Amino acid sequence: MPLPPSLAALVQRVEGILADPDLQVPLSILKGFRNGMVYGAKVRFPHALVMTFLFRTGTLEEKARIIFKATKTHSKNLAFFVTIYKSLMLLQKHLAGDKEMSFHSFLAGLIGGYLVFGDDNGINQQMILYLFSRVMVALVKIPVKHGVLPKPKASFSIFAALTWAAVMWLFRHERDTLQPSLQASMQYLYLDSNHWKGLRTLLWHNK
């Protein structure tokens, strides 16, 4: 169904404004904010929905409130980080004579990460741990990329070995520094398996 002439003219005028090269910078930041909100909601909502209904108790209204709060926090944080990051990248490029330097992304990420994700809460912890694991895997690949290590398998094998060595040492000697959920998992796997009272608690039940 075609738009009324007045509305069609307004849409055409708005699209003409959006195509203005002088507005590229502010509009790219605006869309970055929008994409952060949308992506954060898409990622967090299904995760919060499943985890809340599987592991949380309470009324349906209470669970809905938890899901909404988690989704809102994830979306808001991601949107603000994208906005800060893009703004700082553009500012640094401007200050450097319209030239992007290699450290610009690091500095923008550093400032944005501190301002947006500096609060130690459950949502931020999950996001940072997710990113940290991906960063570590990427860093392991760098020696292979530059020929320091000959095979990808060799670099990943070293990474896997060091990761397991570190977590087992921490669990054995500095257990309280690990996340409670990880402590509980490792307690079940490595310590609870040392105890049983009979066939029932050996094979069917933990305790």
From TrEMBL:
It holds the Pfam family Tim17. One of its GO terms (cellular component) is peroxisomal membrane. InterPro entries: Pmp4 (IPR019531). PANTHER family: PEROXISOMAL MEMBRANE PROTEIN 4. This is Peroxisomal membrane protein 4. It comes from Piptocephalis cylindrospora.
